[in-house]
Specification:
Strand order of the largest sheet: 1-2
Number of domains: 1
Radius of gyration: 16 Å
Structural class: mainly alpha
Oligomer: single chain
Distance between the termini: 41 Å
Shape: flat
Number of helices: 4
Low-confidence stretches: none
Strand content: 5-15%
Order of helices and strands: HEHHEH
């Protein structure tokens, strides 16, 4: 949150935050036995970055798995995946 605040103060516009492959550390941690530690830390970071942060305009997170087994976002990812598939079908039919 501090970085987005500094960017906003310096440039005068709210930045777009992109977190690429957010789920890679979770996958690695699960394979190596330290999943709880990573989940606690990264969930806090992601929550502070996106929830209630008045200094960002928009945020985008991308993952490397289609749907993570144990997601920090729960059913939200499944809903987004279904909506993207529906949009893809509509585009191909048009």
């Amino acid at each position: 949150m501090v970085l987005t605040n500094v960017l906003y103060e310096y440039y005068g516009i709210k930045p777009l935050v992109i977190i690429y492959e957010y789920d890679a550390p979770f996958i690695e941690a699960k394979s190596n036995g330290y999943y709880k530690d990573v989940r606690t830390t990264l969930s806090s970071i992601f929550g502070n970055t996106f929830k209630g942060n008045q200094y960002i305009d928009k945020g985008i997170m991308t993952g490397i798995q289609r749907i993570a087994q144990e997601s920090i976002f729960g059913s939200l990812i499944i809903l987004q995946y279904v909506l993207l598939q529906m949009m893809s079908i509509q585009t191909s039919l048009a």
